[in-house]
Design goal:
This protein has helices at about 1-40, 95-100, 235-240, 305-310, 400-410, 460-465, 495-510, and strands at about 45-50, 50-55, 60-70, 80-95, 105-110, 115-120, 140-155, 160-180, 190, 195-205, 210-220, 220-230, 250-260, 265, 270-280, 285-290, 315-330, 340-355, 360-370, 375-380, 390-400, 415-430, 435-450, 480-490. It is of the alpha+beta class.
């Protein structure tokens, strides 16, 4: 009986020892395979450095410390990108898929403090044929959960100037599938539930403007941006010195932008993005133009054509803007400081902003001119109308003339007085001509034309100007005077200039013409 127990004990020790030996051998074999792959089987234009590889063969986890991955251009071996990370942890690796089929399947990946620096400006060349183990990258990489914490990204141009950056990036993705080098997949990854957080985002938009976002959150197809700013790089004075033709100085601030139910992908060969709901909260836009700089005489397209010509398919079903503010200034004379014309309390809705359907795009706005006069403006167009046909209509009531006099003074060398109670207009047109009707109700409306130095009234021009303005709408049936709109578009000007000259034409006709509605 003692002998039997002794034999059983020895056999048990032998079995345990055998399994320990297998475990050690497996650990050594798998670790050597992983290190061999990291050292020898990466493409020639990729170099990888690290301080240590920890492997737990039982739990199927791998940890790699102090990673530095450098990607070079294939043609001249210049650095194209550098990825660094304090630690990469991979848990529950399917070793069979990795070692035999060269496919990566894992339950969990965690990346600590990843840092990406990417250089742009390299010319693309044909693919070389000496990449080792290229077939590995054609196989899918499946990850049930991917976490990345405290990351940052920096993209630099050929002059080593930052064109994009983001800090404090935290990413959580579930059910990820990557196909790194599959030409059939224009977007080489897919995922399920997601959450991305980032802060201090910067983008260089070209020679004149930058954009920044203080905080960005993207969770399950809902994106929220806090404190989005788009600004001209120069001051107003500096901008005028750095341009050959006139260009707007822009200062846009959006405290909160929200995009809901975003979807994107490829429709055959064309990229599409669908955003059913967009909300823009409390935007403030300041626009300044130095008219002393030479005119920009390039052709300006209508909005419908701009949408048709987009290189992507865009569909934005609903855009809501609340409590917005827009201010505009024009510098017309060297020694005269321009006054602002501004619109406050702007509530607007845009429906069907798209280039994928025949539905009309409609814009409806309500605001207060100079913070006092209620103003409504709406227009509609369709991308299917290749003539760029549009309709527009608007109105104001109880114009506060005193509030607009500073602007009239600096921009038109004039002031106004009187009582302007109502105005309505409707316009229809295309990319060349517009026509419509306007009616206005006013009393004792007069202009004063100022001297060039604006220190006094030019009595002669004032008298001549007021002679042609009819006394008031009370002289007309129903207390309204009517005007016809008929204008030709200046294609070197914007749509809003087109709208303004249309309203101005109808207003002048109502103030100086017969004022009778044509039947």
């Amino acid at each position: 009986m003692v002998v039997k127990k002794s034999n059983i004990f020895k056999i048990s020790i032998a079995i345990v020892g055998f399994f320990l030996l297998v475990l050690v051998a497996s650990h050594w074999f798998v670790k050597s395979k992983i290190e061999s792959f990291l050292k020898n089987d990466l493409p020639n234009h990729i170099e990888l450095e690290y301080s240590n590889v920890d492997l737990n063969i039982i739990s199927g986890s791998i940890a790699i410390d102090n990673i530095v991955l450098t990607k070079f251009t294939k043609e001249n071996y210049k650095i194209k990108g550098i990825l660094k990370a304090d630690k990469l942890t991979i848990k529950n690796v399917a070793y069979t898929s990795l070692l035999i089929h060269k496919e990566i399947e894992v339950n969990y990946i965690d990346i600590k403090k990843p840092s990406i620096r990417h250089f742009t400006g390299f010319n693309k060349k044909t693919k070389e044929n000496d990449d080792k183990n290229k077939s590995f990258f054609n196989n899918p990489i499946t990850i049930k959960k991917l976490n990345s914490t405290n990351g940052n990204v920096q993209v630099l141009d050929s002059n080593k100037e930052t064109v994009f950056s983001a800090k404090d990036i935290n990413i959580s993705l579930k059910n990820c599938v990557f196909k790194i080098d599959d030409a059939k997949n224009k977007i080489p990854f897919s995922y399920g539930n997601s959450e991305v957080l980032a802060s201090t985002i910067f983008a260089d938009l070209g020679p004149f403007e930058n954009a920044t976002i203080s905080k960005l959150t993207a969770k399950n197809n809902v994106l929220t941006a806090k404190n989005l700013q788009l600004k001209t790089k120069y001051t107003k004075e500096e901008l005028s010195k750095n341009i050959k033709t006139e260009r707007d100085y822009i200062d846009l601030n959006i405290p909160e932008l929200e995009l809901k139910n975003i979807s994107y992908g490829y429709n055959k060969t064309k990229f599409f993005i669908n955003i059913p709901k967009t909300k823009i909260h409390n935007p403030k836009l300041e626009v300044y133009r130095d008219k002393l700089v030479a005119d920009d005489l390039s052709h300006k397209s209508m909005y419908s054509k701009m949408l048709r010509d987009l290189p992507i398919h865009l569909a934005m079903d609903s855009i809501l803007i609340n409590k917005g503010h827009i201010a505009y200034q024009e510098k017309l004379e060297p020694k005269i400081s321009p006054e602002k014309l501004y619109f406050s309390n702007i509530d607007a809705s845009i429906a069907n902003l798209n280039n994928t359907s025949k539905k009309n795009t409609t814009v409806t706005t309500k605001s207060k001119l100079m913070g006092k006069t209620p103003l409504e403006l709406s227009w509609a167009f369709s991308i299917s109308k290749t003539t760029d046909f549009f309709t527009a209509w608007g109105s104001f009531k109880d114009l506060d003339i005193k509030s607009i006099n500073p602007f009239l003074n600096s921009n038109l060398r004039a002031t106004a007085e009187g009582d302007m109670q109502r105005m309505y207009f409707t316009i229809s047109g295309n990319r060349q001509n517009a026509a419509g009707d306007l009616k206005i109700k006013y009393n004792n409306f007069k202009f004063k034309i100022l001297k060039k130095d604006r220190l006094g009234v030019n009595k002669l021009l004032t008298k001549l100007g007021n002679l042609i303005i009819k006394e008031g709408s009370k002289t007309n049936p129903k207390d309204f005077r009517y005007g016809k709109i008929k204008v030709e578009r200046d294609t070197t000007k914007s749509f809003f200039n087109y709208l303004w000259i249309s309203v101005k034409g109808g207003l002048l006709d109502a103030l100086t013409g017969k004022g009778v509605k044509e039947e």
